[in-house]
Amino acid sequence: MTMEKPLEALRRRARQLAEKRPGYGELLAFYVNVRQAQMASRASVRIDPAALEKRLRDRPAQADVALLGKADFPVDVAASRELFHALCRIGRTANPHLALQAEKADAYFKAHPDELKPCLTGATDAQASAQAAADPGLAPQVLAFLIRNSTRPSLEASSAKLSTAIDLETWRQCHCPVCGGPPGLNLLRGEGGKRYSLCSNCGCQWRIDRLSCAICGNREQGQLNYFHAEGEAACRIDLCDRCHHYVKTIDERILETCDPELEDLATPHLDLLAAERGFTRAAPNPWTGGR
Ligand SMILES: [Zn+2]
Ligand SMILES: [Zn+2]
To answer: From the CA of 67, which ligand is nearest?
Structure first.
C-alpha cells in the first residue's frame, strides 16, 4: 500500500463530502486550495529561534496561564506576505463578491506593502484594522480572513515549537496552553475516545476530560448534552446548559483521514441546529461568516 500524501487525502475527502452535499462543493474546493497554499508556505516558514526562546523565558509563572497573547506570536512576515497574495489569487477564482475583494486587496497591498506588515504581525488594534480595510475599500471580514489564513502557517509553526515546553496531556484547561484561545473544535481520538480541544487560533491540541464542557469546565452531567445529525456519525454537537455554548466534536476514529476544519466546514447544518436551540459557538468559524 502506498502512503497517500496529506494533500491528496484532503482532496479525496473533500470530494467525498461534496458528493454527499453538493451545495457545499464550491466552498470545500476553495478550502482545499487555501490549505494547499498554506501547506506549501508552512515548508518555507522560518521563525527566529531566539524569539521563541525569549517567549519561553518570559512565560507566565502561573501553571494555568497561556504562554503568550495572540499579538505576541513571532510571524515570518515575508512568508505570510507571499501567502497573502497567493490567497488573493485563489480568492479571485471564488464567488464574485470574494473575487472582487481579493483583486482589490492584491493590488492595494502590492502598491502599499508597508500597510500590510502591521496587520500580519498582529500589531494593529481594532481601529487600525478597520482603517487597513477601509483604505483599499475592503470588507473588514474579508481582510481579517486573508490575514488570519496568511499568518496561520507562522502561528502553527511557532505553536508547535512552543508547545513542546508544555505537557499537553495534563493541561486540561478550557483555553489553549500556548495562546490562550478558546477551543474551536473538540476531537475524539484513540482507544476509548480520548478527548482533545483544538485551538481556533494556533492549531495547538490539548487533552481535556471527556465528561466536561470544553468552554466553561462544567462537570454537572445533567447540564451536559449532545446530539448527532442523521448520517453524520463523525460529527456531533456538545451542548452546555450552564454557559450556553456548544462545541462541535469530530470523531477521528471513524474517519480514514481527518482534517478537522474540513469536517467542520462540511457540517454547517449542525451549527444551525445548535443555534436554533439557543447555543452559541465560543470560537466563531471564520469560513462561514462567524457562526
Ligand atoms: Zn492557541
Ligand atoms: Zn459550559
So the answer is: 1
Coil vs helix vs strand at 45: coil
Q: How far is the CA of 196 from the centre of ligand 1 (A)?
A: 13
Instruction: Answer with the residue of higher pLDDT: 123 or 32.
Output: 32
**Cα 198 to middle of ligand 2, angstroms:** 16
Indicate the number of domains in the chain. Answer: 2
Give the domain-ending residue among 138, 165, 192. 165
* One domain for residues 90 and 61: yes
* Model pLDDT for residues 25-49, shown as the tens digit of each residue: 999 999 999 999 999 999 999 998 8
Ligand 2 centre and the CA of 191: distance in Å? 25
Query: Over the stretch 172-196, which tens digit does the pLDDT of each residue have?
Result: 899 999 988 899 999 999 888 999 9
CATH number of domain containing 234: 3.90.1670.10
Ligand nearest to the CA of 282: 2
In a domain, 203, yes or no: yes
The string over 134-167, giving b where at least 16 C-beta atoms fall within 10 Å of a residue's C-beta and e elsewhere, is: eebebeeebbbbbbebbbbbbbbbbbebbbeebe
The residue with cell 501547506 is: 39
**pTM reported for the whole predicted model:** 0.90
Whether residue 155 contacts residue 203, with contact meaning beta carbons closer than 8 Å, is answered with yes
The residue segments making up the domain with residue 112 are 6-165
Is residue 99 a part of any domain in this protein?
yes
- How far apart are the CA of 174 and the centre of ligand 2, in A? 10
Q: Mark whether 244 and 156 lie in a shared domain.
A: no
Type of residue numbered 209: D
Ligand 1 centre and the CA of 161: distance in Å?
A: 12
